[in-house]
Amino acid sequence: MTNITIVFHSRSGNTYQLVERAAKAALDAGADVRVRKTPELPDPMILDQDAYADLAAATEDVPAADLDDLTWADAIMVGTPVHYGLPAPQIMNFIDHTGPVAIPGKLMNKAVSAFASGSMPHAGQQAAILALHNAFCHWGAVIVPNGSAAAVLHQPGNGAPYGTGTISRHRANSVTEDNFDAIEYQTLRTLQVARALSEGLRPEPKIALVSEERLRTFGLDI
To answer: Taking every annotated instance into account, which residue ranges of this chain make up the domain Flavodoxin-like (predicted)?
Structure first.
Protein backbone atom coordinates (compact mmCIF):
# COMPACT_ATOMS: atom_id res chain seq x y z
CA MET A 1 0.00 0.00 0.00
CA THR A 2 1.22 3.49 -0.85
CA ASN A 3 1.01 6.21 1.81
CA ILE A 4 0.05 9.69 0.66
CA THR A 5 -0.20 12.90 2.68
CA ILE A 6 -2.13 15.85 1.26
CA VAL A 7 -1.12 19.09 2.96
CA PHE A 8 -3.16 22.22 2.28
CA HIS A 9 -4.26 25.68 3.22
CA SER A 10 -7.52 27.07 1.86
CA ARG A 11 -9.25 30.42 2.19
CA SER A 12 -12.62 30.20 0.50
CA GLY A 13 -12.90 26.46 -0.03
CA ASN A 14 -11.57 26.00 -3.57
CA THR A 15 -8.24 24.48 -2.60
CA TYR A 16 -10.02 22.27 -0.10
CA GLN A 17 -12.42 21.08 -2.80
CA LEU A 18 -9.38 19.89 -4.77
CA VAL A 19 -8.00 18.24 -1.64
CA GLU A 20 -11.22 16.32 -1.07
CA ARG A 21 -11.27 15.05 -4.66
CA ALA A 22 -7.57 14.13 -4.48
CA ALA A 23 -8.14 12.20 -1.25
CA LYS A 24 -11.07 10.31 -2.77
CA ALA A 25 -9.04 9.43 -5.87
CA ALA A 26 -6.20 8.16 -3.68
CA LEU A 27 -8.52 6.09 -1.50
CA ASP A 28 -10.22 4.62 -4.55
CA ALA A 29 -6.76 3.68 -5.84
CA GLY A 30 -6.06 1.74 -2.64
CA ALA A 31 -3.71 4.23 -0.98
CA ASP A 32 -3.54 5.04 2.72
CA VAL A 33 -4.39 8.74 2.93
CA ARG A 34 -3.72 11.52 5.42
CA VAL A 35 -5.32 14.93 4.82
CA ARG A 36 -3.66 17.64 6.86
CA LYS A 37 -4.13 21.41 7.10
CA THR A 38 -1.30 23.77 7.88
CA PRO A 39 -1.51 25.62 11.20
CA GLU A 40 -3.12 29.05 11.03
CA LEU A 41 -1.06 32.20 11.52
CA PRO A 42 -1.86 34.79 14.20
CA ASP A 43 -3.13 37.46 11.79
CA PRO A 44 -4.18 35.88 8.46
CA MET A 45 -5.27 37.99 5.49
CA ILE A 46 -8.93 37.12 4.80
CA LEU A 47 -11.04 38.65 2.04
CA ASP A 48 -14.20 36.55 2.35
CA GLN A 49 -14.91 36.30 6.06
CA ASP A 50 -18.07 34.22 5.62
CA ALA A 51 -16.41 31.65 3.35
CA TYR A 52 -13.43 31.45 5.70
CA ALA A 53 -15.69 30.81 8.66
CA ASP A 54 -17.63 28.14 6.74
CA LEU A 55 -14.39 26.47 5.75
CA ALA A 56 -13.10 26.55 9.32
CA ALA A 57 -16.23 24.72 10.43
CA ALA A 58 -15.99 22.20 7.56
CA THR A 59 -12.35 21.41 8.35
CA GLU A 60 -12.63 21.55 12.14
CA ASP A 61 -11.81 17.86 12.47
CA VAL A 62 -8.92 17.88 9.98
CA PRO A 63 -5.67 17.43 11.92
CA ALA A 64 -2.88 19.97 11.68
CA ALA A 65 0.09 18.89 9.58
CA ASP A 66 3.27 17.89 11.35
CA LEU A 67 6.63 16.48 10.28
CA ASP A 68 5.58 12.89 10.93
CA ASP A 69 2.94 13.25 8.22
CA LEU A 70 5.76 13.94 5.75
CA THR A 71 8.13 11.18 6.82
CA TRP A 72 5.26 8.64 6.93
CA ALA A 73 4.29 9.34 3.35
CA ASP A 74 5.59 7.81 0.14
CA ALA A 75 3.83 10.57 -1.78
CA ILE A 76 3.08 14.15 -0.76
CA MET A 77 0.74 16.62 -2.41
CA VAL A 78 0.64 20.28 -1.38
CA GLY A 79 -2.33 22.52 -2.19
CA THR A 80 -2.35 26.28 -1.77
CA PRO A 81 -4.27 29.41 -2.66
CA VAL A 82 -2.23 32.01 -4.53
CA HIS A 83 -0.94 34.90 -2.42
CA TYR A 84 0.63 37.62 -4.56
CA GLY A 85 1.91 34.99 -6.96
CA LEU A 86 3.34 32.90 -4.14
CA PRO A 87 2.06 30.03 -1.96
CA ALA A 88 0.00 31.07 1.05
CA PRO A 89 2.06 32.19 4.06
CA GLN A 90 0.58 29.31 6.07
CA ILE A 91 2.05 26.84 3.58
CA MET A 92 5.43 28.56 3.52
CA ASN A 93 5.51 28.74 7.32
CA PHE A 94 5.00 24.97 7.47
CA ILE A 95 7.68 24.35 4.85
CA ASP A 96 10.06 26.66 6.72
CA HIS A 97 9.82 24.27 9.67
CA THR A 98 10.66 21.09 7.72
CA GLY A 99 14.41 21.44 8.25
CA PRO A 100 14.60 18.77 10.99
CA VAL A 101 13.43 16.12 8.52
CA ALA A 102 14.64 17.66 5.25
CA ILE A 103 18.29 18.22 6.22
CA PRO A 104 18.88 14.60 7.35
CA GLY A 105 17.42 13.40 4.03
CA LYS A 106 14.15 11.98 5.36
CA LEU A 107 12.18 13.57 2.51
CA MET A 108 14.52 12.44 -0.26
CA ASN A 109 13.07 10.38 -3.09
CA LYS A 110 9.47 10.98 -2.09
CA ALA A 111 7.10 11.72 -4.96
CA VAL A 112 5.85 15.28 -4.41
CA SER A 113 3.36 17.35 -6.40
CA ALA A 114 1.65 20.73 -5.98
CA PHE A 115 -1.60 22.42 -7.02
CA ALA A 116 -3.05 25.89 -6.56
CA SER A 117 -6.17 28.04 -6.72
CA GLY A 118 -6.19 31.67 -7.81
CA SER A 119 -8.81 34.31 -8.50
CA MET A 120 -8.11 34.92 -12.21
CA PRO A 121 -6.64 33.04 -15.19
CA HIS A 122 -3.25 34.67 -14.65
CA ALA A 123 -3.36 35.20 -10.88
CA GLY A 124 -0.15 33.26 -10.27
CA GLN A 125 -1.23 29.64 -10.02
CA GLN A 126 1.77 28.41 -11.97
CA ALA A 127 4.15 30.76 -10.16
CA ALA A 128 2.94 29.48 -6.79
CA ILE A 129 3.38 25.85 -7.87
CA LEU A 130 6.88 26.54 -9.18
CA ALA A 131 7.77 28.33 -5.95
CA LEU A 132 6.85 25.15 -4.07
CA HIS A 133 9.04 23.19 -6.48
CA ASN A 134 12.00 25.24 -5.20
CA ALA A 135 11.40 23.90 -1.71
CA PHE A 136 10.89 20.35 -2.99
CA CYS A 137 14.33 20.55 -4.61
CA HIS A 138 15.84 21.29 -1.20
CA TRP A 139 14.01 18.29 0.19
CA GLY A 140 15.62 16.11 -2.48
CA ALA A 141 12.14 14.96 -3.47
CA VAL A 142 11.10 13.78 -6.91
CA ILE A 143 8.80 16.44 -8.35
CA VAL A 144 5.77 15.05 -10.18
CA PRO A 145 4.35 17.56 -12.68
CA ASN A 146 1.18 17.07 -14.66
CA GLY A 147 2.98 17.22 -17.98
CA SER A 148 1.03 17.97 -21.15
CA ALA A 149 0.32 14.52 -22.58
CA ALA A 150 -2.71 13.38 -20.56
CA ALA A 151 -6.04 13.77 -22.35
CA VAL A 152 -7.66 15.29 -19.27
CA LEU A 153 -5.30 18.26 -19.46
CA HIS A 154 -6.68 19.20 -22.88
CA GLN A 155 -10.14 19.88 -21.50
CA PRO A 156 -11.13 23.58 -21.77
CA GLY A 157 -10.53 24.44 -18.12
CA ASN A 158 -7.11 22.75 -17.79
CA GLY A 159 -3.79 22.92 -19.55
CA ALA A 160 -1.01 23.72 -17.05
CA PRO A 161 1.80 21.15 -17.15
CA TYR A 162 3.07 22.15 -13.69
CA GLY A 163 0.06 21.17 -11.60
CA THR A 164 -3.69 21.64 -11.37
CA GLY A 165 -4.82 25.26 -11.07
CA THR A 166 -8.32 26.59 -10.53
CA ILE A 167 -9.81 30.00 -11.31
CA SER A 168 -12.17 31.06 -8.54
CA ARG A 169 -13.19 34.57 -9.68
CA HIS A 170 -13.40 35.27 -5.95
CA ARG A 171 -16.24 32.78 -5.60
CA ALA A 172 -16.20 30.21 -2.81
CA ASN A 173 -16.28 26.51 -3.67
CA SER A 174 -16.29 27.09 -7.42
CA VAL A 175 -14.02 24.32 -8.73
CA THR A 176 -15.08 23.07 -12.17
CA GLU A 177 -15.43 19.47 -13.32
CA ASP A 178 -12.43 19.95 -15.61
CA ASN A 179 -10.31 20.82 -12.61
CA PHE A 180 -11.68 17.91 -10.60
CA ASP A 181 -10.68 15.60 -13.44
CA ALA A 182 -7.23 17.21 -13.49
CA ILE A 183 -6.61 16.75 -9.75
CA GLU A 184 -7.72 13.12 -9.97
CA TYR A 185 -5.21 12.57 -12.74
CA GLN A 186 -2.49 14.41 -10.80
CA THR A 187 -3.15 12.27 -7.73
CA LEU A 188 -2.99 9.00 -9.66
CA ARG A 189 0.21 10.09 -11.42
CA THR A 190 1.83 11.03 -8.11
CA LEU A 191 0.89 7.63 -6.65
CA GLN A 192 2.19 5.92 -9.77
CA VAL A 193 5.59 7.59 -9.43
CA ALA A 194 5.68 6.91 -5.68
CA ARG A 195 5.06 3.21 -6.27
CA ALA A 196 7.77 3.06 -8.92
CA LEU A 197 10.25 4.73 -6.58
CA SER A 198 9.48 2.44 -3.65
CA GLU A 199 9.56 -0.72 -5.77
CA GLY A 200 12.41 0.10 -8.12
CA LEU A 201 14.78 2.46 -6.34
CA ARG A 202 17.90 0.67 -5.17
CA PRO A 203 20.55 1.98 -2.76
CA GLU A 204 23.50 3.62 -4.50
CA PRO A 205 26.63 3.01 -2.42
CA LYS A 206 28.46 5.97 -3.97
CA ILE A 207 25.82 8.40 -2.65
CA ALA A 208 26.68 9.50 0.88
CA LEU A 209 24.26 11.59 2.93
CA VAL A 210 25.34 14.31 5.31
CA SER A 211 27.17 12.95 8.35
CA GLU A 212 25.72 12.84 11.84
CA GLU A 213 28.52 15.14 12.96
CA ARG A 214 27.43 17.71 10.41
CA LEU A 215 23.78 17.31 11.41
CA ARG A 216 24.66 18.08 15.01
CA THR A 217 25.90 21.50 13.91
CA PHE A 218 22.29 22.28 13.01
CA GLY A 219 21.15 21.34 16.49
CA LEU A 220 19.11 18.41 15.19
CA ASP A 221 18.16 15.59 17.51
CA ILE A 222 19.45 12.47 15.78
So the answer is: 4-188
